[in-house]
Amino acid sequence: MTQLIPLLLIGVAAAAASYFIKTRQARTLSNITDEEFANLYQRRFADSTDSVLKLRTFVSKHLTLPADKLAPDQTFKQLAKYTGFASEYEVGMGDLESELMEAFARAGLEPPKSFPNTVAEFIHEMLRANAKQASE
User: What is the sign, positive or negative, of the torsion defined by CA atoms of 40, 57, 98, 92?
Assistant: First the structure.
């Protein structure tokens, strides 16, 4: 039992360090309201605002960033420096990629050749796959 205590302390310290790094880094990103996000997104894609904002939250949870820190034109590469440790970013991106591939598989669509570069592109691809699945 006493051997587990140092391991638990290391785990708690790592989680705390990640949280503080992420919080400090995320403060440098501008806050984007839902309305601003939707307006910027609509310049490029004509998807339902409610669906777009739900997927914005979905992306933010996977990257463990506040949703109001995500903008449609942000690349995932840019967001990497705001997600804490590299391993957290890789896990979040892996989950997003899996979700996208599963959505395309359920819809019977050919998945994109490469992972979308921006938050808006990811959201649009997810909505495209979900719309195809819903129409069947």
Answer: positive
Token output for 102: 């599963």
pLDDT in tens, 103-120: 999 999 998 899 999 999
- CA–CA distance, 68 with 27 (Å, rounded to integer): 11
Q: Pick the most confident of 8-22, 30-44, 83-97.
A: 30-44
| CA distances for 7 relative to 2, 4, 11, angstroms | 10, 5, 6
Give residue for tokens 């310290």: 13
Give the residue extent of every domain in the chain. 4-135
Q: How far apart are CA 86 and CA 81, in angstroms?
A: 8
Q: Which helix (H) or strand (E) holds 100?
A: helix 86-107
pTM assigned to the model: 0.77
Q: What is the pLDDT of residue 17?
A: 44
